[in-house]
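Students often ask what a holo structure prediction actually looks like on paper. The answer is less mysterious than it sounds. You provide the chain, you provide the ligand, and the output is a string of discrete structure tokens encoding the 3D arrangement of the protein together with 2-acetamido-2-deoxy-beta-D-glucopyranose.
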Amino acid sequence: MRSCFLGALLGAVSLASALTVAPYTGTIIKGKQFPRLIEVDLEELVDGLESGLFTSYDLVRAYEARIMEVNSTLHMVTELNPDALTIASQLDSMRANGTVLGPLHGIPILIKNNIATYDKMNNTAGSWSLVGAKVPRDSTMAAKLRKAGAIILGKTNLSQWANYRSDNSSNGWSAYGGQTYAAYYPGQDPSGSSSGSGVSSSIGLALAALGTETDGSILSPSEVNNLVGIKPTVGLTSRYLVIPISEHQDTIGPMARSVKDAAYLLQAIAGPDPNDNYTLANPAINGSTPDYVAACNYNAFAGKKIGVARNVIAAYGKYIDPPVLAAFNEAITQVAAAGAEIVDANFTGFAEYLNSNNESLVLNADFLVDLAKYFSELTYNPYGIENLAEERNFTQTFPLEDYPQRDTGVWDGALKQGWNNTDPRFWAAYQADLYFGGEGGILGALARTNASAVMMPTTISPGIPAIVGSPVITVPLGFYPANTTVVLNGFGNLVATGPNVPFGLSFMGAKWSEAELIGFGYAYEQRTMYRNDVQPYLVPNIELADFVS
Ligand SMILES: *[C@@H]1O[C@H](CO)[C@@H](O)[C@H](O)[C@H]1NC(C)=O
Ligand SMILES: *[C@@H]1O[C@H](CO)[C@@H](O)[C@H](O)[C@H]1NC(C)=O
Ligand SMILES: *[C@@H]1O[C@H](CO)[C@@H](O)[C@H](O)[C@H]1NC(C)=O
Ligand SMILES: *[C@@H]1O[C@H](CO)[C@@H](O)[C@H](O)[C@H]1NC(C)=O
Ligand SMILES: *[C@@H]1O[C@H](CO)[C@@H](O)[C@H](O)[C@H]1NC(C)=O
Ligand SMILES: *[C@@H]1O[C@H](CO)[C@@H](O)[C@H](O)[C@H]1NC(C)=O
Ligand SMILES: *[C@@H]1O[C@H](CO)[C@@H](O)[C@H](O)[C@H]1NC(C)=O
Ligand SMILES: *[C@@H]1O[C@H](CO)[C@@H](O)[C@H](O)[C@H]1NC(C)=O
Ligand SMILES: *[C@@H]1O[C@H](CO)[C@@H](O)[C@H](O)[C@H]1NC(C)=O
Ligand SMILES: *[C@@H]1O[C@H](CO)[C@@H](O)[C@H](O)[C@H]1NC(C)=O
Ligand SMILES: *[C@@H]1O[C@H](CO)[C@@H](O)[C@H](O)[C@H]1NC(C)=O
Ligand SMILES: CC(=O)N[C@H]1CO[C@H](CO)[C@@H](O)[C@@H]1O
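The corresponding structure tokens follow.
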């Protein structure tokens, strides 16, 4: 365990010293400044494409080269799209003749390796059992990205099965993709399960990436990779042909370097889909999707009430490290100075929630059904696996799945539970969750106080919104100080806490309140710009200017 970690650490350090150079200030060709890809935003890319400074073809080549430059250290991308350059050329031709599909036209985006595409790429959740499997069409997420003109550049590594297999694995590890590392400290835990999406977005290996969340899998890797992450209301984004954990909790959202870029991506992927009934509860079905980009408003806090769940902060005190708590307390002052009234917004069912395991019952029950449904959608299923019992059998006997070193404890629990989401016991557990997250959680706190959102350190923000399906945005809040003592993760192979590791601030709201949360995230981001305070230890050297003919 230890020696394995040290090997990774030394490898990372030696590569880092080869790659880290003096700050890059951009390259000037014919009087034009090429943007630096670690900090470029969508609007700057669109300017460059429209002015002819570079093409989408150039962009794809640059991003692919950057991926190859750091992949052997960070393992953040599992597959590149072999058609990406062809697609880029087509989109360049369309732009040249005046057809632009929208702001994402010709912009490379990475997606997590549990979101299916109907092309040459595999959709595996990191398992060898799904390498070679075929789906009947694009997932709705992939279809919406293509319709918006985005180029799906590749698939990102993840905690295997979105972290729903093992009781003793590590974040960002999958059998198919290996161990993902984050870029702010050698050997850094990338968190998960959208680990590769977080790392890739943080160092500019695409404009941004999509992740998925059941309980923390967008928010947590966004936090430790210094990103903005939006975990949408369950049902805002379609889960059709996304490898599931739970129909009641799964959701897909953007992970980007700025709030506005995340808003652009959310605009493209949100909306009702007949292939996912949960999306039909979206109020936009009777109107139109809000304008998330226009919601980026510097004055969003003016005249609003923002809640602080003091009893949750107190109960979770031991999980909030002093630098995070200090930064959070300062954030309360900053939000007040930006025009908000700060109110106590306690979660009254929180103590009871901490002693309940209803969420596990719900997730297990959903997983048994939803996984079988995903298998049944496949048009080619290489091992003919149809349900969780068979998947466990495969995983325990296929050598590359690293069993029993990484166990199947979560599945053992689900199979032992035995009953699924058609059972009356499911409804009892689910109703308890709806209380803990609803009246006893975020929704009750908002209703009682008339607050527009509750703010919380991201490290403790995902749980309550997860069980009730409500939205959260996380934005950069700060970094652990340079003299922080390194603490390893439970598995012993990753740096969980250490110098320069980023952390985040969450705003959580009522269902379908994404536009308002984006406003708060933007207003906070624009006042602080903490993202720029610390650079990753590992940044690709290759830049767009290297590929422009
Ligand atoms: C990642 O790195 C490995 C090892 O250098 C290489 O073989 C592989 O092709 C790379 N994959 C991608 C998608 O860049
Ligand atoms: C523009 O180019 C696209 C892609 O090559 C093509 O499908 C479309 O018909 C062209 N439109 C015009 C107006 O030429
Ligand atoms: C998908 O998996 C197949 C089977 O292993 C492999 O041949 C193919 O190269 C993979 N696709 C990509 C884009 O890596
Ligand atoms: C949506 O709900 C309807 C009515 O219950 C059902 O017939 C249909 O199969 C569902 N569709 C999906 C994609 O789950
Ligand atoms: C849409 O409007 C119909 C008719 O008024 C209503 O029954 C339905 O609940 C509405 N749906 C949503 C998601 O608001
Ligand atoms: C919220 O909880 C904190 C800590 O438990 C407590 O001190 C405070 O009085 C509570 N606020 C309200 C308005 O109940
Ligand atoms: C689920 O929640 C209910 C209601 O609070 C509680 O009585 C029950 O003990 C919980 N179940 C478990 C297994 O924690
Ligand atoms: C769910 O449980 C029901 C009732 O026990 C059973 O008939 C059904 O086959 C189960 N579904 C799955 C996918 O296991
Ligand atoms: C698991 O594998 C064993 C040995 O190949 C087989 O006998 C058994 O039927 C399998 N069980 C399931 C649920 O697939
Ligand atoms: C993980 O748990 C399994 C089963 O308890 C055990 O065999 C294995 O050694 C554990 N792995 C590690 C790294 O501790
Ligand atoms: C880190 O430095 C700060 C400021 O000098 C100091 O207050 C703190 O105790 C130091 N922490 C450690 C772990 O050495
Ligand atoms: C496809 C790909 O790049 N896979 C790499 C993932 O990471 C492992 C190491 O953990 C490499 O061996 C693979 O080549």
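The CA atoms of residues 9 and 187 lie 5 Å apart.
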